[in-house]
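Quick one: structure tokens for this chain, please?
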Amino acid sequence: MDFKDQIKQFSERVTKLKDNIHTEEATKNAFIMPFLQVLGYDVFNPLEVVPEFICDIGTKKGEKIDYAIFRDNDPIILVECKHWKQNLSIHDGQLLRYFHVSKAKFAILTNGLIFRFYTDLVEPNKMDEKPFLEFNIEEIKDGQIEKLRDFHKAYFDSNSIYQSASELKYINEIRQLVLQELQEPNDEFVRYFAKQVYPNMVTAKVIDAFRPLVKRTFANVINDTLNDRLKSAITPDNASIVVEEPVQQISIPTEPEDKIITTAEELEAFYIVRSILRTTVPVNRITYRDAQSYFAVFLDDNNRKPICRLYLNNPNKKYIATFDADKKELKAEIKTLDDIYSQSGELEKTVGYYL
């Protein structure tokens, strides 16, 4: 039986027995010791697997960790075990203390179902807060089994595992971020794609409209990729599998382009406002959105952070409106664009409300 089959068999064992395991000691006997045996270690050899390994921590003497795996008379892996129903996140601090005073380069925190593998990628001799490898044995994937194989006695190479641990850690963290964005894309993620395809200013309403489009597009891309793989795997006599989601009509808020014309005067006014505020905030944080009746300037392209509105379309009367602490407009008439400089104090005060 190869390693992969052994892990699958162990996974089935855990699923079958867990409801009958009522204590931490029973968890060790039923799950942890068999797991170490699958990894090729002799759990009955006290020179190889040391139970209740003593880790003195400062003035605390006789502190014990559940198991220490030894090679050439030195510990290489520490194993801390908990009952299978316990949340591991409340116990990682205990393992961190043991790791600090041990020569072991790797540590495992487990309850028999969840296995977390740690090392010291961030700071030498101090266990990282996040594991570089984590899996649920009942749902373990083939790629995780291959990474676990590195810890088998026959293949264990401390330097090789350590070199790949950094890459594995960041891959796992990026993967979690990707999954999170696929389930619920955040504003910046949606904005990135909307800007590539939407011809007008990307407002908060546009982002809300594009969010389900982005989510559905990624689902369709994943679906298409799976279908392509299935097509290459099935025989020509079999039909390909296609899953299509019903198309929903989504209304993207727009204003007729012919009614919104950003003039050279408005842009010049915008650059004057940026010039005034350059010593208060970085100029790239000052943005604008044009509308039919006014030209708006914002901080961070956020409609909840208006800096001013410029009413320049009427040739007879032009205004600049700043905002008070309650976001109430404070209009001031301007004869020329140079008059905007007379509102420097008000503009800086408005931005100050958001800083």
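The longest strand covers residues 64-71.
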